[in-house]
Amino acid sequence: MYALLRAIAGVALRWYYRDIQIEGLERVPRRQPVLLVVNHPNALVDALLVGWIMPRRVLITAKSTIFANPVAAALLRWLGVLPLYRASDVATPGQAVDPARNRDTFRAVREALARGGAVLIFPEGKSHDEPAMVPLKTGAARMALQAWQSASATNLAILPIGLTFERKDAPRSRVLVQIGEPIHSADWKSETNADANIAEALTAEIDARLRAVTMNYATIDDAMRAVRLSSMIAALFEEVPPIGVVDRRLASETTIARRIGELGALLPRADNALRAQADQLIRRLDSTQHVAAKHGVLIEDIRISLEHQRAATFVVREAWIVLVAGPIALWGRINHWLPFRAARLVAMRSVDSAADPAMRTLVAGAAFVLLTYLAQTAVVWKFWGPMIAGIYLLSLPLAADINFLLSDRLRRAARRARAYFLFRRDPLLQERLAAELETLRRDVIAFDRALGEREVGAPA
Q1: Cα 44 to Cα 61, 63, 65, 178, 244, distances in angstroms
Q2: Which of 51, 291, 308, 365 is the most exposed place for a label (fewest CB within 10 A)?
Q3: Angle 28-31-33 from CA coordinates, rounded to 5°
Q4: Residues 260 and 174 in one domain
Q5: How far is CA 281 from CA 104, 274, 278, 358, 449, in A?
């Protein structure tokens, strides 16, 4: 059942998100007990992502409030999901919170780790829409310490996993999963065994490892500004991307955003000339982006070739792909339009959090798609027999995959064609924009070097 649900989750995630990039998967131990500590920006989607990418079965912990529904509680317990009782969930006015409320869950976790298992915990304690991680609870550290001290899992590793969503509420957006450097029990115990507040110290170390693989900003405006700027700079340094690949991997923009944060921390201590250079550079980037958007082209398409031979190859190749894959994609679109539409309508009702649309779309979509598959297959079985019904059933998810891939490709091809015709009509515009991109690229490199390597004193 776990394998089946994991497969269904993988299909749902691939259909909802355009690209899911994974970094550091080689850091996951295959047999060693491991505690997966993950940031929690997107509710149920976070658990689905981790469960799908992990090459081993994962025991999941979840807040106790989702067990309030008896049906959900029965299903979750059947799948082995363990409830964590937060103080805020069980607090009663005038009464102290029972410190042993999670005793059974901690014991189950300890037993799973003793068997060499993998356990998932969200140390923030809740899913949220904040632009940075909230202060971590000590539960993950206490779980690890109990396992180490009881000698049930002395070789336990704590593995930080950072989830970064381009737009967690938007279908066909991008996701980055970064697996950080693990905390090994032997190293940690040798360094901190004299610390009286070892749980707090270990929690601080988990926090530091998680922040190294997540994006954290003081305000939402800061986050939006960094995302916009990193996207523009990433486009500067990217060659014209092939039509058949995802337009740009989110990891590139995330790396640039982190570098922008590092330079931003240095800038207040820089001299006036460097600060003025930074302001001017941002204005030029904004201006170039504005000109490109005004003409309906992407920055990464500015340097496309205008050769007739390449244009002819482009047309023939894309036409051939549409001719071959188009009917299958259309079949997938027709068969999935109703369940997808119904899931989206359910998802957008009374949205309280940015995590609601994706979570509800995935859950409702999976249910509606499965019901639709069963109904259609039953009809085909009745009229054409089990063999045709089986082939028909297998064709449905494949057709949906092709529909998504072809739709994304056609959108990219249409943008590329628009840029081609624009620059054929006005080649001087392309020359001017390409020259500005090259200048901006050199200036960005020079600014990074100047601010990053110069000894920066107090503001002048």
Answers
A1: 11, 11, 13, 18, 31
A2: 308
A3: 80
A4: no
A5: 57, 10, 5, 36, 14
Co-location of 23 and 170 in the same domain: yes
DSSP state, residue 69: S
Nearest in space to 237 (alpha carbons), one of 300, 162, 313: 300
Are 284 and 233 contained in the same domain?
Answer: yes
Residue 459 belongs to a domain: no
| Owning domain of residue 58 | 2-90+98-211
> Given CA atoms 377, 383, 384, 385 in this order, what sign does their dihedral have?
positive
Same domain, 60 and 30: yes
Of 192, 211, 230, the one marking the end of a domain is 211
Q: CB 426: neighbour CB atoms within 10 A?
A: 12
Q: How far is CA 438 from CA 230, 233, 432, 444, 446, in A?
A: 17, 12, 10, 10, 12
Number of structural domains found in the chain: 3
> Bridge-partner residues for 58, per DSSP?
118
Dump pLDDT digits (tens) for 356-403: 899 889 989 999 999 999 999 999 999 999 999 999 999 999 999 999
How many Cα neighbours within 13 Å face the side chain of 190? 5
324 and 249 fall within a common domain = no
Is 278 a domain residue? yes
Tens digit of each residue's pLDDT (9 = 90 or more) over 80-138: 788 887 776 665 666 656 666 778 888 888 889 999 999 999 999 889 999 999 999 99
